[in-house]
Inverse folding.
């Protein structure tokens, strides 16, 4: 363990997609929920019991070679801005509820693995893969989980599997989410046909938790069940549904490119105009326009910016990230204005290709 | 000093940059609850009927109050968790809750659609039998590359059968990636 840096500096130094641009299957997040057998679950723990569990898990995780260079932050050390960054990096799903004391997080030095201690469960391990290839992060989670189980018995019953404080998550205690970028399917109104069917073990939603509003053309697939299925079949069902959507998106992009669809050219050129010249941009509209520009780059209709830089903007323009760039940010209007200003600067140099300009 | 304030979100005004689930019971958040104690400010998003929200407003959730008055609720003797409160979205308090509330939890899981449809009959008729089919603590969680390759090959054949060539190409790339990785680890 090294001296504790700032959580925000770990996250801001490791903005997803800034090193490698995402493909259509942009990221996969795996979460394992576990409780220790010898303690009550967090909601019923006494402060002293919570303190013991926290110390045990914190020391165990910080000494694991798999989490070399990881850092611990107590709940009290985490600011609202830190939690916002964690949510924006897909690492935390519900960052704003405050557990009462003796809780904290462990983050690895790349900002890709997060362990929540004493929140809803004693331990929630979450790891992010910035692609559809989840093997490495699954191996990592398995190793961490095994190390925990060696040190302390994990709450388990043969009937319900791993016991979680929310009984609808018992069994494997495994939550898998795949993040898919599907602008072509959405623009051509072909998404509905490609969505998982009712009988599949997978459910689709947007970043806001519903299908009605797909911010940034991003679709999230997650497993419906944690109980009654094996870990392999949960991962496989996400793999199958995601691969089908990736295939459908690629087909839709190829068709747009072949047909040179005027409506899509219009959408992309309008997105370009608004991103380059708008005075204020709300997050939803900004992400929507960036998604179209990214599609334009993939189709070869836009040039002058690297795919990585373009992709990292997906994170940089969100409030948590922007507030680090502009610490004195005021109300939503000022935020929108600063976001627009930031985008004008970052997107300088992008040009519409002859396919759109003529 | 403790000051608490509540803001109701009107439909459509939900801030897209914040998590949208109730921090306590995972239903869509409708209320922002802000609590100021001394210099510490805590913001929590909750659904309108969240028992934790009711508890913060009234000191106790209406359901819990009823249960304690009528004393009809089944209760875990180890942690004093009341089943009525669990049904309202409160968490379980300990591993014993799974023993005390066992069959009731199965009914709730079935009602909430949290057990795969193909298992529903088996679960209903064979109470007491394990529902969990995943790994156990004595078995490692790692998934062998061979089992992953088998599944991907199956998916590839299915995609080719349906003439989904883009999907097939994507699956082929994934298979190739795994095979290359396993070759690297062997050499």
């Amino acid at each position: 363990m090294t001296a504790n840096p700032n959580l925000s500096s770990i996250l801001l130094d490791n903005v997803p997609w800034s090193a490698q641009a995402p493909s259509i299957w942009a990221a996969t997040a795996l979460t394992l929920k576990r409780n220790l057998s010898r303690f009550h679950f967090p909601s019923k723990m006494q402060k002293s019991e919570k303190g013991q569990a926290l110390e045990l898990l914190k020391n165990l995780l910080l000494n694991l070679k798999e989490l070399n260079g990881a850092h611990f932050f107590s709940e009290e050390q985490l600011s609202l801005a830190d939690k916002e960054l964690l949510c924006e990096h897909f690492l935390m799903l519900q960052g704003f509820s405050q557990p009462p004391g003796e809780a904290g997080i462990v983050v690895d030095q790349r900002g890709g693995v997060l362990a929540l201690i004493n929140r809803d469960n004693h331990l929630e391990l979450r790891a992010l893969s910035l692609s559809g290839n989840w093997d490495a992060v699954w191996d990592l989670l398995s190793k961490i989980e095994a190390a925990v189980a060696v040190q302390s018995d994990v709450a388990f019953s043969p009937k319900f599997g791993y016991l979680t404080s929310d009984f609808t998550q018992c069994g494997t205690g495994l939550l898998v989410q795949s993040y898919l970028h599907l602008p072509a399917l959405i623009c051509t109104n072909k998404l509905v046909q490609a969505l998982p069917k009712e009988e599949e073990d997978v459910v689709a939603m947007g970043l806001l938790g519903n299908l009605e509003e797909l911010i940034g053309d991003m679709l999230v697939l997650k497993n419906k069940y944690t109980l009654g299925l094996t870990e392999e079949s949960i991962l496989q069902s996400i793999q199958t549904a995601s691969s089908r959507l990736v295939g459908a998106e690629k087909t839709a992009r190829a068709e747009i490119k072949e047909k040179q669809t005027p409506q899509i050219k219009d959408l992309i050129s309008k997105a370009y105009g608004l991103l380059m010249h708008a005075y204020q941009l709300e997050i939803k509209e900004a992400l929507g326009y960036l998604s179209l520009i990214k599609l334009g780059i993939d189709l070869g209709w836009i040039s002058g910016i690297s795919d990585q830089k373009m992709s990292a903007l997906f994170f940089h323009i969100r409030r948590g990230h922007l507030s680090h760039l502009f610490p004195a940010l005021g109300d939503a209007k000022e935020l929108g204005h600063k976001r627009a200003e930031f985008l004008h600067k970052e997107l300088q140099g992008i040009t519409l290709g002859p396919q759109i300009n003529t | 000093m403790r000051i608490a304030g509540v803001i109701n979100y009107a439909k459509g005004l939900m801030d897209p940059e914040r998590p949208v689930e109730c921090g306590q019971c995972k239903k869509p958040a409708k209320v922002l609850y802000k609590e100021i104690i001394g210099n510490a400010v805590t913001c929590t998003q909750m659904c309108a009927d969240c028992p934790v929200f009711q508890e913060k407003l009234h000191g106790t959730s209406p359901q819990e109050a009823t249960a304690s008055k009528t004393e009809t609720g089944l209760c875990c003797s180890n942690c004093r968790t009341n089943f009525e409160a669990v049904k309202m979205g409160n968490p379980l308090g300990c591993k014993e809750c799974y023993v005390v509330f066992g069959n009731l939890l199965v009914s709730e899981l079935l009602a909430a659609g949290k057990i795969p449809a193909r298992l529903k009959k088996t679960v209903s008729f064979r109470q007491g039998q394990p529902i969990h089919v995943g790994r156990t603590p004595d078995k490692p969680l790692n998934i062998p590359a061979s089992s992953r390759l088998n599944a991907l090959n199956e998916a590839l054949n299915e995609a080719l059968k349906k003439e989904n060539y883009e999907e097939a190409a994507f699956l082929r790339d994934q298979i190739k990636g795994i095979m290359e990785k396993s070759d690297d680890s062997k050499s």
